[in-house]
């Protein structure tokens, strides 16, 4: 049976948004203030997003959009509406990746799925400076920026840049080791949000193949 790597790959790129909830030490003073304000209010949250993937030559190779909700710690839901429907749910213990077209749901222990990726900071250790190098970048207009560099060279990403304004995350840009770039733009970010914990429970539809890792 084919494992749904497509879903896991999309998760690894998208769910890094969790960094914004924790990265503040070592950044520019303006960024620290914006992030701390966001952290203080972000026990829960909701937003819509657009995701753009560019190849090494700068060509747009994939565009998707959807919405997300989260409830710290360890619970989140990313729903991709286009170009194909897919849902990724963290229930605090497992990560579920449900691909409607493939009629398949992949179940992975959350700690194994996240590993030492930046997203793991939201659900694991908060000692971020043990895993990442942080650098404040020059702000652009009213947007504060922070660069995050994973110490682990075997990770998926070479660096990540966060942009914040008005106390919320606006964009996240991920650069992988192959020169590919992923940009996630967030809109209508609400923190805290009225989130129902049952939203993060996943029950596989009848007839769907379940792959456990």
Question: How would you explain this protein's 3D organization?
Answer:
It is a single chain. The protein is an alpha+beta fold and 213 residues long. The protein has one domain (5-205): outer membrane lipoprotein receptor (LolB), chain A (Clam), CATH 2.50.20.10. It is 15% helix and 46% strand. The chain has 4 helices and 12 strands; from the N terminus they run ααββββββααββββββ. It has helices spanning 5-14, 29-41, 110-114, 120-123; strands at residues 44-54, 60-71, 75-82, 86-91, 94-99, 104-109, 132-140, 143-150, 157-165, 168-176, 181-190, 209-212. Strands 7-8-9-10-11-1-2-3-4-5-6-12 form a 12-stranded mixed sheet. It is globular and about 50 Å long. The protein starts with a helix and ends with a strand. The model is unreliable at 15-27 and 120-127 (pLDDT under 50).
SSE order and pairing:
Layout: H1 5-14, H2 29-41, E1 44-54, E2 60-71, E3 75-82, E4 86-91, E5 94-99, E6 104-109, H3 110-114, H4 120-123, E7 132-140, E8 143-150, E9 157-165, E10 168-176, E11 181-190, E12 209-212
Parallel strand pairs: 6-12
Antiparallel strand pairs: 1-2, 1-11, 2-3, 3-4, 4-5, 5-6, 7-8, 8-9, 9-10, 10-11
């Amino acid at each position: 049976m084919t494992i749904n790597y497509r879903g896991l790959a999309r998760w690894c790129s998208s769910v890094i948004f969790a960094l914004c909830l924790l990265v503040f030490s070592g950044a520019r003073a303006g960024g620290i203030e914006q992030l701390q304000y966001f952290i203080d209010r972000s026990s829960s949250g909701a937003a819509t997003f657009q995701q753009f993937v560019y190849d090494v030559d700068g060509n747009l190779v994939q565009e998707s959009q959807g919405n997300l909700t989260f409830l710290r710690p360890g619970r989140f839901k990313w729903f991709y509406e286009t170009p194909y429907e897919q849902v990724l749910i963290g229930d605090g213990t497992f990560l579920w990746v449900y691909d409607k077209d493939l009629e398949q749901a992949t179940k992975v222990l959350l700690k194994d799925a996240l590993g030492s990726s930046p997203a793991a900071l939201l659900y694991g250790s908060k000692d971020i400076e043990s895993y990442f190098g942080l650098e404040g970048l020059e702000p652009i207009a009213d947007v504060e920026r922070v660069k995050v560099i994973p110490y682990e060279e075997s990770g998926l990403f070479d660096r990540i840049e966060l942009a914040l304004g008005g106390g919320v995350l606006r964009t996240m840009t991920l650069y992988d080791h192959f020169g590919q770039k992923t940009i996630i733009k967030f809109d209508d970010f609400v923190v805290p949000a009225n989130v129902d914990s049952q939203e993060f429970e996943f029950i596989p539809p009848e007839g769907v193949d379940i792959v456990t890792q």
